[in-house]
């Protein structure tokens, strides 16, 4: 849709073209954010099966929930990259692109003739982003990587559990997401640099590197003490009280990160004397006497309901929250009023609800999203409008199995 049709201003990346070879999650999330920011994103998928996530149930019509979640706002072209003609089309698109993103194992794009050095020779302004599991060098470089593998090797799983319980992966696919998020930092920084130099960069990020970088204070606990942090469940390794506390009918999150909030919480509990209790007066004393303090807190909070405590904690200005399900989080009033959920329409698949990007510019949300497209839905328009292919050339390429239009579109752009 145009700016006039949507009433929205172009995003800050309007005029930037992204050629996206990435699939599954680490990569597609990054390219989706670039689309949210106004870039034209052309997603390249293999003929026949497309992105592997197109086949993951449950489905909205013919579109997988997984694919929908990571591919709004993109155009889709289906190519046979193993054919010379398919590689030529990909190279032609790279010549006309600002950013290329891929997340294959090291060496795959080189073997296809689409590696950084080959495409830099065609377009020195191209910013080439690569997301891998473990980078191009080192003993793990060729190891297959998925989110849970990166989580295990990063140490995250060792602490994501209650004490004495089995290690557990994070519910969020943070290994994949971290790869995407850090790649965005690099791609946008390289785009800024190119404004001055006129030359692109090869931006590389490994999922494991990204998760190690996100350890934050946990790695420093090890460096300072020589001991790995122990699992504390919802609690905090060095701040008390902080975490989930039982009520008479459930649990409530309380987070007393500062002394001010600890004092407020003690008053909220009706135990103001705890503030001057030698066992709990300052951080290190509360940490050393965590178990004793938790017994006192639980004895009081289990006398009343979750609803009672949420009201009282708010009254005393204590950082707190109920523990919501995913559905409850999406339907809560604040999320709705913030405009984080939008409904988009696909011509054949109908209405679908999506989570919008969280960025705001001058108080405005991103422009309305395009619904994720069927496999090859934009093949014809991209080759016709971007590369100037004629109907006869498109038909010949489709007959040769080099390209694939969607089930609803032939190579000439006519409905079938």
Q: In words, what does this structure look like?
A:
Keywords: Transferase. The chain has two domains: 3-214 and 358-404, 3-Layer(aba) Sandwich (Rossmann fold); 242-324, 2-Layer Sandwich (formyl-coa transferase, domain 3). It contains 19 helices and 14 strands. It has helices at 3-6, 28-36, 65-70, 84-95, 108-111, 116-122, 147-154, 156-159, 174-197, 207-213, 217-225, 259-269, 283-288, 290-301, 306-315, 326-331, 333-337, 379-385, 391-399, and strands spanning 17-20, 40-46, 59-60, 63-64, 75-79, 99-102, 127-132, 202-206, 242-246, 251-255, 320-322, 341-346, 350-355, 403-404. The protein has a seven-stranded mixed beta sheet, sandwiched between helices. Strand 3 and strand 4 (63-64) form a beta hairpin. Residues 1-6 and 408-416 have low confidence and may be disordered.
Outline the secondary-structure elements.
Elements: H1 3-6, E1 17-20, H2 28-36, E2 40-46, E3 59-60, E4 63-64, H3 65-70, E5 75-79, H4 84-95, E6 99-102, H5 108-111, H6 116-122, E7 127-132, H7 147-154, H8 156-159, H9 174-197, E8 202-206, H10 207-213, H11 217-225, E9 242-246, E10 251-255, H12 259-269, H13 283-288, H14 290-301, H15 306-315, E11 320-322, H16 326-331, H17 333-337, E12 341-346, E13 350-355, H18 379-385, H19 391-399, E14 403-404
Parallel strand pairs: 1-2, 1-6, 2-5, 6-7, 7-8
Antiparallel strand pairs: 3-4, 5-14, 9-10, 10-11, 12-13
Helix pairs in contact: 2-9, 7-10, 9-10
């Amino acid at each position: 849709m145009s700016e006039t049709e949507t009433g929205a201003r172009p995003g800050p990346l309007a005029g930037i073209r992204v050629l996206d070879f990435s699939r599954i999650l680490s990569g597609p999330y990054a390219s989706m954010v670039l689309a949210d920011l106004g870039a034209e994103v052309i997603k390249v998928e293999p003929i026949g099966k497309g992105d592997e996530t197109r086949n993951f149930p449950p489905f909205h019509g013919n579109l997988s929930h997984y694919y929908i979640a990571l591919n709004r706002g993109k155009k889709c072209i289906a190519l046979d990259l193993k054919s010379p003609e398919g590689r030529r089309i990909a190279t032609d698109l790279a010549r006309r692109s600002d950013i290329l993103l891929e997340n294959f194992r090291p060496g795959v794009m080189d073997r296809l003739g689409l590696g950084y050095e080959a495409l830099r020779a065609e377009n020195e302004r191209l910013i080439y982003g690569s997301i891998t599991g473990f980078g191009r060098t080192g003993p793990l470089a060729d190891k297959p990587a998925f989110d849970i593998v990166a989580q295990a090797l990063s140490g995250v799983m060792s602490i994501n559990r209650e004490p004495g319980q089995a290690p557990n992966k994070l519910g969020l696919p943070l290994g994949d997401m971290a790869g995407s998020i850090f790649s965005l930092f690099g791609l946008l920084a390289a785009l800024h640099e190119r404004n001055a130099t006129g030359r692109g960069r090869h931006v590389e990020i490994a999922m494991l590197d990204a998760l190690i970088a996100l350890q934050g204070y946990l790695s420093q606990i090890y460096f300072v003490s020589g001991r790995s942090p122990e699992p504390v469940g919802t609690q905090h390794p060095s701040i008390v009280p902080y975490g989930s506390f039982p009520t008479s009918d459930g649990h409530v999150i309380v987070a007393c990160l500062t002394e001010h909030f600890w004092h407020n919480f003690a008053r909220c509990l009706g135990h103001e004397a705890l503030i001057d209790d030698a066992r709990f007066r300052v951080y290190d004393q509360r940490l050393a006497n965590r178990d004793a303090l938790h017994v006192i807190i639980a004895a009081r909070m289990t006398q009343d309901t979750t609803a009672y405590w949420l009201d009282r904690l708010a009254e005393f200005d204590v950082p707190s929250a109920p523990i919501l399900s995913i559905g409850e989080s999406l339907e809560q009033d604040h999320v709705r009023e913030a405009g984080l959920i939008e409904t988009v329409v696909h011509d054949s698949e109908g209405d679908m609800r999506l989570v919008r990007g969280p960025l705001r510019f001058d108080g405005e949300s991103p422009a309305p999203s395009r619904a994720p497209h069927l496999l090859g839905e934009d093949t014809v328009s991209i080759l016709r409008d971007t590369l100037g292919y004629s109907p006869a050339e498109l038909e010949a390429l489709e007959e040769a199995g080099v390209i694939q239009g969607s089930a609803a579109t032939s190579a000439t752009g006519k409905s079938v």
